[in-house]
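Aim 2 progress update. The chain analyzed this quarter is reproduced below.
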Amino acid sequence: MGAQVVDHVMGAFGPHRLLYGSNWPIVDLCQEGYDGSIGVLQSYLSELSPTEIDQVVGGAAGRIYAGS
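Predicted structure tokens:
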């Protein structure tokens, strides 16, 4: 289920509008549990470009919290 959610939000919003959060709401609903959800994210990120990874794991949050 986690991979389906990541696929959906990435397609809907793109990496420039996503930010990583270890407590993302779907983690409680995933059959994979917390550890599995991290595995899903790591697997998904491995398919992205370095620029896209930077956006998801910090770039988007930096822009949001900086008020840009």
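The mean pLDDT is 80. The first helix runs from residue 2 to 13. These observations will guide the mutagenesis experiments scheduled for the next reporting period.
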